[in-house]
Inverse folding.
């Protein structure tokens, strides 16, 4: 493991924790210490912090303890040329970043209560495309799919593709494999979600393309969703961090696609995801972490071509999916069950109260 990747991830962890500490201090100056904070309509508090440490964050004052905890997780800075390439400090910095992200997003819910739309689908006409954390109603409906096998895993995409058509091709290939696509962060002033909307792709929980948020901090919603699945369906107790992370590595087949330039904060987020056994694959030239260790195979893979991103991601995560090809002029599969056909997209409409229609059904030999 190179000195450069350790330096970037650890520095990113320090940057994130310091930024969130500053935001928390300002919040205490504005609101009372007993002001309620958290994600809407959930019994899991801040799910990453709650699941891994057992700490229940319900008020501003409660957030002080986990913030002190994440500050203590940060390892010493990388100095000099004699860096010892251990993965442990990198993972600690990443975990500190992820937990700090969760507090940051809780503060956003407090300070900007209308930033996220509490719905399963964006409201494009109102310009509200970000859904934020899934409430327990959405989680129960969607989380069970990761247990019964109808959703083999999820791809967490951060950043943006070079153009909308590339974004559409990558995402639709994941849909054909029945994976969920959790989207966060931005690159060069745009996001994958905005590119998909421009390309005419329907987004939302119903099509398994979930717009969590425009910042890298909103990627924590994907990890929180995974941990809630472990608690709700895997019987993992809050605070049992070892069993929690092993459950995710062995049962939740997820990975990260980093599209665009990877800065220090993205590097810290990628290091954080490795704790869960979720590897990161990037389309840019970044330092790699290839030896098998926490993840099933490689941890960080660079320079993945866009037309190979899906295949390589599935391979590195050790996920086995079957894609059936049927010669029909449209996409199909579980990911499209919630897709809506709008009136403007109809060539004609028969029956259903609009006009008279007759349905002809014939029996055919199976062969």
């Amino acid at each position: 493991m190179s000195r450069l990747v350790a330096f970037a991830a650890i520095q990113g962890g320090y940057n994130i924790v310091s930024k969130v500490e500053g935001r928390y201090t300002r919040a205490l100056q504005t609101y009372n210490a007993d002001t309620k904070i958290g994600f809407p309509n959930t019994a899991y508090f801040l799910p990453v912090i709650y699941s891994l440490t057992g700490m229940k964050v319900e008020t501003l004052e409660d957030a002080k303890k986990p913030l002190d905890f994440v500050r203590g997780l940060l390892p010493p800075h990388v100095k000099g040329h004699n860096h010892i390439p251990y993965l442990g400090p990198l993972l600690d910095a990443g975990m500190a970043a992820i937990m700090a992200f969760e507090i940051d997003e809780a503060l956003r819910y407090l300070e900007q209560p209308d930033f996220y739309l509490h719905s399963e689908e964006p409201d494009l006409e109102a310009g509200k495309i970000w859904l934020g954390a899934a409430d327990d109603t959405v989680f129960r409906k969607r989380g069970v799919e990761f247990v019964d096998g109808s959703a083999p895993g999820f791809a967490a995409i951060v950043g943006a593709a070079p153009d909308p058509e590339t974004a559409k091709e990558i995402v639709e290939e994941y849909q054909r494999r029945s994976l969920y696509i959790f989207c966060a962060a931005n690159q060069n002033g745009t996001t994958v979600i905005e590119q998909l909307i421009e390309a005419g792709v329907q987004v939302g929980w119903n099509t398994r393309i979930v717009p969590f948020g425009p910042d890298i901090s909103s990627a924590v919603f994907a990890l929180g969703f995974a941990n809630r699945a472990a608690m709700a369906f895997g019987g993992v107790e809050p605070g049992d961090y070892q069993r929690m992370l092993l459950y995710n590595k062995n049962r939740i087949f997820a990975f990260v696609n980093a599209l665009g330039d990877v800065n220090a904060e993205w590097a810290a987020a990628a290091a954080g995801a490795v704790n869960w056994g979720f590897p990161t694959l990037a389309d840019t030239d970044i330092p790699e972490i290839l030896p098998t260790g926490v993840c099933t195979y490689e941890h960080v893979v660079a320079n993945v071509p866009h037309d190979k991103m899906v295949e390589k991601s599935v391979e590195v995560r050790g996920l086995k999916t079957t894609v059936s090809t049927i010669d029909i002029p449209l996409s199909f599969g579980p990911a499209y069950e919630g897709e809506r056909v709008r009136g403007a997209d109809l060539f004609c409409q028969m029956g259903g109260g609009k006009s008279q229609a007759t349905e002809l059904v014939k029996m055919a030999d199976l062969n």
